[in-house]
Amino acid sequence: MVRVMVSGYYGFGNAGDEAILYSMVQALRGLHPGVEIIVLSSNPPATEKWLPVKAVNRWRPREIARAMSEVNLFISGGGSLFQDVTGAKSLLYYLGVLEMARFFRRPRMVYAQGLGPLRHNWSRRLTARVLDRVQLITLRDGESRDLLQSIGVRRPAVRVTADPVLGLDPASLDLKCGRHKLVQLGLEEGHRPLAGIAVRPWEGLGVTLEALARLGDDLIAQGWDVVFLPFHFPRDVEAGRQVQRLMQGRAVVVKERLTLEELVGAVSCLDLMVGMRLHALILAAVLGIPFLGLSYDPKVEAFCRQVEQPYLKVPLLEYEELGNKVKRILYEERYLKECLERAVAELRPLARCNAELALRLALGGEL
After folding, report:
1. Can you tell me the distance from the alpha carbon of 354 to that of 24, in angstroms, rounded to the nearest whole number?
2. Edge-to-edge, what's the strand order for the sheet holding 3-7?
């Protein structure tokens, strides 16, 4: 039996990371139905409840070591694990478990990650040292490859692929539950056009929140409904409520934790997505919904360019710029949808290629 261990930001209630994990499991099992997948999770019971995997508590080294000693491959990813913006502890953790896998002489793969930002010399040197010892690195964008080369990683095989969620098959999910959730909130599908906003907490967002509130009021005045979707519960709920309190019109803030199926189902009902959260934009892309990216991190800008969709940089975002960009999107909706469809069609096989390479490495094949 082939056993694979997966390390990432799993079990924390972040819908983007849970979508990554779901997509990875779907891709690996689609190619090798019998593969056993062991996930390092902050909430093992929850992870095992909604996915056909085994889960190990990511904070218990002995349990990790026991399971790691029996796997054919250790996977780090996906997401943006090797960055120092959220602090040193996170980076040291993900590098540490990679080194633990090296201790057990397990093959190691970095799976479809976005690398960086790495702002400090120590984090660049340490990341380069650890990643230079793995067997395979796949990256979700060219900017990550450039950073990898600039910090001096030379030995592993490196491929630029795509984010795992771009390989997601929405037909495998029950989208009706998400649509039903919106109806419960008073948002009937097809009754009025629906704009979704996925905002997250971020330092210095005051001007941007005011701009989003004015945008929401403008859309409502034009006959739209507006809903704020939390991709990281509960943190994103308060960010959405901050915008809602600045609005004159009625907007809906989803105040409960949505399952992945409910969230994807809700996104499938949108006519427009405006989002800071990367995987809000990726899910919109997979579902063919035009979007405006609000880039607080290079990964958002990189994805928007990858799929030929517009973006603006935050936090200092004025309403005039935001409103004009949305007007342009609605005017060019058909063209943007065509661009999106073409880009996703090109990226989908690259996203699934991650799983092919992982299984090849696990089975001892050539890369």
Report:
1. 8
2. 54-57, 36-41, 3-7, 73-79, 108-113, 136-139, 157-160
Distance CA 98, CA 300 (A): 26
Token pair 């960055």 is found at 83
Percent of the chain past pLDDT 70, that is, above it, reads 99
* Rounded Cα gap, residues 336 and 313, in angstroms: 19
Band (22; pLDDT cuts 50, 70, 90): very high
The H or E element spanning position 119 is: none
What is 202-255 written as a DSSP string? -TT-HHHHHHHHHHHHHHHHTT-EEEE--SBTTHHHHHHHHHHHH-SS--EE--
Sketch out the chain's domains with CATH numbers.
3-160 (3.40.50.2000), 172-346 (3.40.50.2000)
The residue among 120, 125, 166 whose CA lies nearest residue 354 is: 166
Tell me the three state secondary structure of residue 344. Answer: helix
**Orientation of helix 15-31 relative to helix 260-268, angle to 10°:** 100
This prediction has a pTM of: 0.94
Q: 195: closest CA among 217, 226, 229, 240?
A: 226
State the average pLDDT over residues 181-186.
89
- Asked if 332 and 367 touch (Cβ cutoff 8 Å), the reply is no
Distance, CA of 141 to CA of 129 (rounded, Å):
21
Six-digit token string for 258: 């949505």
CA dihedral 92, 237, 175, 56 (to 10 degrees): 30
CB 231 within 8 A of CB 260: no
The Cα 29–Cα 316 span in angstroms is 44
Q: Taking 80 as the threshold, does the pLDDT of residue 189 lie above it?
A: no
Asked whether 38 and 4 are in contact (CB, 8 A), the reply is yes
Single-letter amino acid, residue 161: T
Nearest to 134 by CA among 164, 106, 94, 92: 106
Q: Which of 319, 266, 257 is nearest to 289 (CA)?
A: 266
Cα–Cα dist 23/138, whole Å: 15
**What SS3 state is found at 108?**
strand
How far apart CA 58 and CA 68 sit, in angstroms, is 12
- The dihedrals phi and psi of 112, each to the nearest 5 degrees, come to 50, 45
